[in-house]
Amino acid sequence: MASETEDTTVDLRETIRRARVVLWDFDGPICRLFARHSAELVADGLVEWLEGRGLRGLLTESERESLDPHAVLRAVDRRHPGSDLVAELEERLTQEELKAAASAMPTAWADPLIRTWSAVGARLAITTNNSPRVVGAYLDSRGLTGCFAPHVYGRTQDLHLLKPHPHCLRRALNATGSAPGTALMIGDTPADFQAAREAGVPFLGYARNERKEKLLRDAGATTVVASLEAVLDTVRQAP
Length: 239
Prior knowledge:
Elements: H1 2-18, E1 21-24, E2 31-32, H2 39-52, H3 61-64, H4 69-79, H5 84-101, E3 105-106, H6 110-119, E4 123-127, H7 132-142, H8 145-148, E5 152-153, H9 167-176, E6 183-187, H10 190-199, E7 203-206, H11 210-219, E8 224-225, H12 229-237
Parallel strand pairs: 1-4, 1-6, 4-5, 6-7, 7-8
Antiparallel strand pairs: 2-3
Helix pairs in contact: 2-4, 4-5, 5-7, 6-12
């Protein structure tokens, strides 16, 4: 056990030492967006809205029972890509995310880690499937906008480019003029890991519980932390 802990510490130190630009997922590593505004209820609301328009048959039974609002949005986009229907559904999701942002729960140690990493010269960007308007509202509320601006790359109307597609990571790399090997992605889902792998970006997994850690490791992530405190300590100790 001690040897495994030492190996993790060495991997973390080396991963952080190489990083010149840090690409953050938003919901998870920075905050729990739906901590007080249930994502399940949001998904149900999107399904009910579709049913109210006579579009119940647009979703399969499993899609109607999905607890993930993004899954509902993607399902509709697969059938009617780029349509007004998808645009209106996406806006409805954005409004729900904005409500959630007002009561989101900051991830422990995220705020000081962001400020410290920025202060020591790393460039920070956000690469997320959430709306960039939502990210902006949350960062403003925490006084963190200056650590990231203008590098917030979130959901666009091209929903087929959401993670695990690496599109938002590549946008961040291009905008910051960074090579993939000099970057680091911090994420908490297999989709984050897959996007980072496809983009050639090293990955640091954040797992707030054993279930999330198992999902990340099963996907192939090798460096995973249960708390950002360990990352903050490593950044502070870096030469």
